Amino acid sequence: MSAVKQVFALGFPWQTLDPFLFCVYHKDDFPAGNGHSGPAVSLAGRNIGQDFNMIDGWNMYHGDTVPGFPAHPHRGFETITVVNEGLVDHADSLGAAGRYGGGDTQWMTAGKGVQHSEMFPLTKTDEPNPMVMFQIWLNLPAKNKMVEPHFGMLWSEDIPMVEVNDAQGRLTTLKAVAGVFQGHIPPAPPPQSWAADAGNDVAVWNIKMSAQGTFELPAAAAGLNRVLYFYRGDQASVDGQILTPKQGAQLQSDVAVTLTAGSEACEFLVLQGRPIGEPVVQHGPFVMNTDQEIHQAFADYRRTQFGGWPWADSDQVHKDTKGRFAKHADGRIERKP
Predict the structure, then answer these.
(1) H-run or E-run covering 285
(2) Considering the entire predicted model, what is its pTM?
(3) CATH topology of domain 20-40+50-158+281-311
(4) What is the pLDDT of residues 179-212, one digit of tens each?
């Protein structure tokens, strides 16, 4: 029995299935920085504030001097930001902040409402500042949509990197951001997350395969939504079904699937989870179950600003920091090399 149920072209953002709402892959070949966290090149010709045209291989996004996403609100879901290369500066209305990257993941439960910013500081002034990251939105069930917001960091040192060799010794590495793989347990997700219940079988796996390597994605429980995204390489085979880059495959969750890389190294993202199975009503940054709840979200944001913005700038960059860090809403500080 083939595990492949459907093959589809990847759009922008990538198509997702319940319990996931959104997934976008950012690969920006940012130039050297100007000493103020921005690019040391002219921004002429860019649609500043809405720069998504990949001029010269990178975007400013909603930033005007530093690339990224200045302060904006969310309610009713979670953001999972997986940064494989580059740096992200986080700030939010809880007073939490952080600089993370190089394999780290930031997992935020928006719950009843939070503002946050995600800026991409270009800290290297004598060489390029490449960025490779995913942002994934994971829905919350109705009973948890109005929980207190939560800011969490999953440091690269704590995220399992599972190495598997095929019969010819060709290496595959699986990064388990969420979901146990071969007994390797990732850091715990936020306590109110759909992923916090092991019975929901939520997985976020980043897979890197050597050229011509083979790898078996094991069967999971029945009834899950499991999607494989192929984003780097020349060609790959999924149970004999040929995929080209920028294609995805919906997989049967309770059937093992054999992946075979083409003549180049290949990279994939797997998103898996048990569907929440509730109505989804989304308007911009708010995801609820009914239209009335969306109207209430806008009214609450206009009234409270979800706690306001305690930072000097809407595009807050932690210019004086050294290394990676996280400042939690309770004042606790973590520092990494």
Answers:
(1) none
(2) 0.97
(3) Jelly Rolls (2.60.120)
(4) 999 999 999 999 999 999 999 999 999 999 999 9
